[in-house]
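hey m, so remember when u said the tokens were messed up on ur end? i reran from scratch. heres the input so u can diff it against urs
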Amino acid sequence: MAFDADEEILQDFLVEAGEILEKLSEQLVDLEQHPDDSDLLNAIFRGFHTVKGGAGFLQLEALVNCCHSAENVFDTLRNHKRKVDSELMDVVLEALDNVNAMFEQVRNHEELTPAPEELIVRLDALAQPEGEGVPAAAPQAEHEESESAEDGGDITDDEFEQLLDALQDEKSGDTSSVSGAGSAEGEKESSGDDEITDDEFEALLDQLHGKGQFAGAPAGEEEAVSKEEKPAAKAEGGDDLITDDEFEKLLDDLHGKGGSPTAGGEPSAPGQPSAPEQPAAPKEPAKPKAEAPKPAPKPAGKPEAKGAAAPAMPAREQAPAAETTVRVDTKRLDDIMNMVGELVLVRNRLQRLGAESEDEHMHKAVSNLDVVTTDLQSAVMQTRMQPIKKVFGRFPRVVRDLARNLKKEVNLVMHGEDTDLDKNLVEALSDPLVHLVRNSVDHGIEAPEVREKAGKPRQGTVTLSAEQEGDHILLFIEDDGAGMDPEVLRRKAVEKGIYEQDAADRLTNSECFNLIFAAGFSTKEQISDVSGRGVGMDVVKTKIGQLNGQLSIESELGKGSRIVIKVPLTLAIMPTLMIMLGDQSFALPLVNVVEIFHLDLTKTNIVDGRECIVVREKVFPLFHIKRWLVRGGASPEVPENAHVVIVAMGTKQVGFVVDQLVGQEEVVIKPLGRALQGTPGMAGATITGDGRIALIIDVPSLLQHYG
């Protein structure tokens, strides 16, 4: 393995191949739905081909072999010699899993585990035209490779090796003459210095590919060009050696312009599909390839020898202008975000000082700083944003595999894939969404026969969508399945000892639906490798809570269910409500705050031994959080009036009694020190506008520990 290769080249391969492999998973599932889409077949072929080329340059043979076998399958498919079916897709997807596993090993600088031999054999069998078994002979392989090269525009490794082998045969004098189809040339002996002549080389190409397959000029024009080129070759080398330009022209004639890894000694444009193939060639002893940089200045002086290149030149000149992006290490973006966070804190401090000052110039300067800081904060957040498509891209494969495993027919519909959110959130949401989507397929969608009896189409639909609402992202996971029965959920809650019968009877339908997030709760009678243990949904709820997000469920029996996730756009800077408990400052995340009001505490009620208040005919449990968070806060005397903040976690709402409301403030979350890490009810700390330290309250954790 060539991990001693240039680290920069390896990183480029990891980035480019990683993007291709992400797309391949989605494209393969899409192909199963649209098996006759030739553009899709070509895109998948190019994907495997590109990864193979990069892996070949790094001498990752196990990765090259697996990609090559998969590539051959899609070469057969795009030549309409075999049809796409579910069994074929199972094998190809298994191959992609192996490629992904090896790719991760490359990323971790580990020794590669080759794909199972049985898988390679199955791929090779699928690469044969339908109805044929083992490949007949080399000529058939040559013919297929030729067609592959014509379609893709690239000379393949096998073709290149055949050319070199034939050259070696010529040098050793094994063959003294070669005749192409339809050619009437006489025998020619090898030149005195044992080098192959131009005519012999052309005839050799004719023999390999047949004259009719050339994409070049007619014979008369080729002779004219050949006569023009030969004197130049003589002048350079003084013998019959083929020159670099002539070699490039032969490849152009064979495969069409732009197919070779280099053209005229110039590097390929960044977007050309052939670029990754360039690294694969150095492992061959290809003299013309190694000397390719030499003739870079020549095309200007010899345009007639490169006639086909003329139309491509303007595009090549414009290519650099198209490169408008630059890759930046995410650590650098995190550092910039931290510095902007510090700037926000300074801005808050200056705003507080400016409000106390009567200097008009001071007010104006602080106002300008506020505008610039807000714009800068927005711009830096945009650089960290990624489309949620990076998460959504894995779900077609997840749904497809799970539906086949459960023998269900499921169609996945996705909306809002271009919705942007913070890169940290993209990574954090990945696992919860996978579990929720699997849950919809397993629990929600019924078997095809059951759906037919209920008057529904055999194929169920799972809809995954995202949209932005203010400074939050809303994610929806919907299915048109069986829905949830509140009575079944109540009965299960009593059976598992979560509620007494009386308490369970008082639960609203919405509260019943939220029971599925309780630890150990499951409505499945039988445990499977997909679900039934009751350990998934509580983990999802905990994870969403850690992201300062909210979960809610809507369901209708027989019609389907809908889960809504609401998360902030970014985790770095958070809008909060600043409150005072005694003389200490605390920050409540604004996403949890529902409403604020002033309350006469003498009008509270006791329900089930807990203090409650009734507001607009709704009952809210009341908590004096000062008693939990401030030393000596549990004083016996209770004030007659106080501020109450109603906070929400999912569908549950409670009231917090606070001493003073300071106002809304954007804060930068700072992690707690090692001594305070894991403190119940605390999400972190921040510096307030007056320079004091305030703790940020984690509402779910606070209630779980104290309430």
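this time it looks ok to me. The mean pLDDT is 76. if urs says something different then somethings off w ur setup not the seq
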